[in-house]
Amino acid sequence: MSFLDGKSLEPHPGTAAGLNGLREGLPLTIPETGETVRAKPGFRMVVTANTQGNGDEFGVYPGTNRLNQAFLDGFCGMRINYASPEEEVGILRDVMPNTDDRVLERMVDIANHVRKAFMGNPDADDTSGETIEITMSTRSLLQWARWRNIVGDHPDPWVYSMERALTWRATPETKAFIDGIVEREMG
User: What was the pLDDT predicted at 57?
Assistant: First the structure.
């Protein structure tokens, strides 16, 4: 079972189907090596699907395709939200251990502003009811913290590090929107 079809970076359509037998407790043979893998008792398979298997009609998750309904029927689904602000502050503290918690809290607040704007939340501060095309995952938040550590004494370290972590891929309008929040919150 090859993940890539050798012609492109797109997953081979048979990859997901090849997992059906394994999910049902059958052995899985890897054609390239001839190796047979048997699931141990209690084996569990966990998968993620940012689009809930529906593909990506808005271009947020390029390369995601609609998944087969029969395949999806074999899973139990659940929605996982972002970590709580307190948990995200703790995560940031691991990357920025010498930073005041109030600064880390502001970083999480900024991430939540971006998330609300992405979701089109009309109650989100500073969105004017508009939505933006990118969001700030916890992974992006961590990248922002790492870049902030790297840029040191840059003249505008918070905006500059945000650009490295997230806004480099935003439209100019979204970049200006996020930069404005960063400047207001971080000074």
Answer: 66
Query: Can you tell me the mean pLDDT for 101-130?
Result: 82
SS (H, E, C) the chain: CCCECCCCCCECCHHHHHHHHHHCCCCEEECCCCEEECCCCCCCCCCCCCCCCECCCCCCCCCCCECCHHHHCCCCCCCCCCCCHHHHHHHHHHHCCCCCHHHHHHHHHHHHHHHHHHCCCCCCCCCCCCCCCCCCCHHHHHHHHHHHHHHCCCCCHHHHHHHHHCHHHCCHHHHHHHHHHHHHHHC
Residue listed under structure tokens 């000074």: 187
Rounded average pLDDT over 121-134: 66
What residue has token string 């993620």? Answer: 48
pLDDT value for 73: 82
Q: How far apart are CA 115 and CA 53, in angstroms?
A: 21
45 — pLDDT class (breaks 50, 70, 90): confident
- The phi, psi pair for 157, rounded to 5°, reads -65, -35
pTM: predicted TM-score of the whole model, two decimal places:
0.71
Task: Name the token pair of 42.
Answer: 């209690």
